[in-house]
Structures are given as structure tokens and as C-alpha cells.
Amino acid sequence: MLVITELKPISTFQHITYSNFVWPRQTAVIPAKCVWVRRTDLLALQRETRTLQQNLRKAINSDLQQAHALLEKVEHELEVVCQELEGARTERNHWQARCETALAEARKEKEEKYQLQCDLQEMSEQLSQQSAYCASMGAATCTLLWRVSRCEDSIESIIVGCKVDEFLSMTSSTVESYVDTYKDDVPQEQTDETVFILALCGIITNIAASPCGRDFLMTKDTGRAMLDTFITILAEAPSRKCARMKK
Prior knowledge:
Layout: E1 2-4, E2 35-37, H1 39-148, H2 152-160, H3 164-182, H4 192-209, H5 211-219, H6 221-236, H7 243-246
Antiparallel strand pairs: 1-2
Helix pairs in contact: 1-4, 3-4, 3-6, 4-5, 5-6
């Protein structure tokens, strides 16, 4: 048996006092505060304490290793995320630069388009003015030629010119285009365009009314083609709105 004189924490073995073994027949005086503890129990308690210390150390080391490994993993993932973020920033800057370039090009194209529209509008106005001028000039010239062609003596002078074939071809295509363009919606007779067409028809009528003019028209391919065109156009033209042309 072991005699413990005082109750101390089990982990502090230096405070345990061992007494001498007492013979069975010998009477020993035991202090009141002493507790009897078997040596085997004390050794078992000591072994358990050491085992707990070792297990605790192993558990702490294992937790530390796991925490360290987890920290390294998180640091690696953080590094990867930072690299991806940097790549995303680079790509964003690239696309932002391309977007700014595209916007600048779009603004430039918009300005160019606006300038082209202005130029087109200006050219359309000029073309309209030139068209009106040409129609007015054609109406005035053809009206004068129409009046001149009323005289039979002037017919010979007209058909002798070198531009007669071209004049007949242009007259045929002009009248045909006029009728195809307006069809049932023929403009008023007061417009320069209508006066121009009527004057052309009057000139051809005066040429055909003259014997030499008829012979000329029938002997020329352009003359026969023009007469065929006139016959077709006048047959298809509306009677009420093209009454003066048919006369």
C-alpha cells in the first residue's frame, strides 16, 4: 500500500509522499488527511495521463496540419482567383477600348452619313431645279418648233438635219415614259412637262401632215418605230385626261 499524506492534483506527482511499507502485524499511525491509494491504480492513472497528453498533442498537431493545409489551399485558390480577376480586368480593358473605338467610328460614320444626307438633299434640290429648268426650256423650245412646223415649207428644213433620227427616237421614248409614269394620273396641262409632251406630239403631227414628212417617216426605221409607239400609247392613254394629246 501507498500512503498519500495530502490530496493534491494527480498530474503533480512530485507532491505525492510515499511511506515505508508497513508490516501486517505492525501498527502504523496514519494522519487524518492521508488517503490510501494502490500503487497499481496510481501507475494506471499515470499511464492514462501520459496517454491523454500524447493524444492531445497528436490531436492538436493533426488539427494544425489540417488548418495549415486548408490555409495553403485557400491561399492557392485566392492566387488563382486574383490571376483570373487580373485576366478579367485585362479583357475588360481590351473590350472597353474596342467599344470606345467602335463608338468613335459610329459617331464618325453618323457624321459622314449626315453629311451625305445633306449632300444628297442638296443634289436632289439641284436635280429638281435642273429638271424644272430642262422641262421649262424643252417646253419653250418645242412650243416654238411646233409653231414653226405648222408651215409646210419648214418641214423640209426640219427633216434634212443630221439630228432627225435622234430627235425621233428621243420623242418616242419621252412620250412613252411620260404615259407609263402617270398613266391615269396625268398632270394638268398647264405644267411645263405636259406642255413639252404636247409640243412634241404637235411637231410629229405637223411632220406627218406634210407629204414629204410622211414619206420621210415611212422610209426611216426610227420614224416607223415612233409611229408604232404613238399608235400604241394613244390607244392606251385615258381619253379624258389625254384628250388634247390625242388631237
